[in-house]
Amino acid sequence: MSWKIIVDSSCDLKQLNNLAPNTQYKNVPLTLKVGDHEFIDDENLDTKKMLAEMYAYEDRVTSSCPSPNAYLEAFEGADNIICMTISSKLSGSYNSCELAKSLYLENHPEANIFVLDTLLCSGPISILAEQINQSIAKGLTFDEVVADLQANLEKSKIIFVLSSLDNLVKNGRVNHLVGKVVGLLNIRLIGQNNDGQIDMIHKARGQKKALATVVSEMEKNNFNGGRVYLNHVDNLTGCQLLEKLILDKFPTADITIEEAGGLCSFYAEENGLLIGYQTK
């Protein structure tokens, strides 16, 4: 039996290493639009160029989800298909994938397809993709792999640290005055996922205090070591400082640092951090 693990580009993992036998990994890109310029969020995207254009553009900037046809192409050639999308409360990607599933099953009724609305983005989806691959490598059945995925989703968390709100202001999600004050006073906003939406839970003056707050929140959420993804928008130094703080507190943490992809950079913005992890 052949397998496909499919994500949309809210997951910053463009390639999955050490794939199980007869398994493929596909990252289906969203599209980011700045004025008349469209950026495809794939491995060829120049994120710095996109952000420079975004900051220079004074009007609203947008993103659009993959089409059902894009998902149909990703489905081709596999018996067992598991697809994970960004939160349906933030994008139409899940609905597009569900439509593609219905269309695909009309012509391939023997296929097994599971589409998961993760209610997340970025690092937690990367961790889930790794775990799906591990389950496949163990020889689990489709239903067993799905059951493991759903159990792991319940433990999955994300924390955001934002130092710029330019895009959120342009899109009317944050008051202009609030956005300006955040930039001028070196304030970091710390947020986390709440049922598929973003809740701002803390404000911190400067990066050092913000990172200490992140570790405190991880502990409060019952993190006790394990897999962690630190994704950043041109802020490797911040990630390395946070890595040290996490390892000082949780020596068994297994941490990967990666640059954020296009979509996450689009919204987390310059110096933004996205921390994906799982609780006990």
Rounded to the nearest angstrom, the distance between the terminal CA atoms is 32 Å
| SS content category | alpha/beta
Regarding quaternary structure, what we see is single chain
Count of DSSP-assigned helices: 10
Keywords: Lipid-binding
Protein name: EDD domain protein, DegV family
Function: May bind long-chain fatty acids, such as palmitate, and may play a role in lipid transport or fatty acid metabolism.
GO molecular function, one term: lipid binding
Protein described:
By secondary structure, the chain is α/β, with parallel strands linked by helices. The chain folds into two domains: 3-30 and 65-153, Dihydroxyacetone kinase, domain 1 (Rossmann fold, 3-Layer(aba) Sandwich); 156-278, Hypothetical Protein Tm841, Chain: A,domain 3 (2-Layer Sandwich). Helix content is 39%, strand content 28%. The protein has a six-stranded mixed sheet, sandwiched between helices. Helix 9 (236-249) links the parallel strand 11 and strand 12. Helix 2 packs across helix 3, helix 4 (123-137) packs antiparallel against helix 5 and helix 8 packs across helix 9. The mean pLDDT is 94.
SSE inventory with pairings:
Elements: E1 3-8, E2 23-28, E3 31-34, E4 37-40, H1 47-56, E5 62-64, H2 68-75, E6 80-85, H3 93-107, E7 112-117, H4 123-137, H5 142-153, E8 156-162, H6 166-170, H7 176-184, E9 187-194, E10 197-205, H8 207-220, E11 227-232, H9 236-249, E12 254-259, H10 262-268, E13 273-278
Parallel strand pairs: 1-2, 1-6, 6-7, 11-12
Antiparallel strand pairs: 3-4, 3-5, 8-9, 8-13, 9-10, 11-13
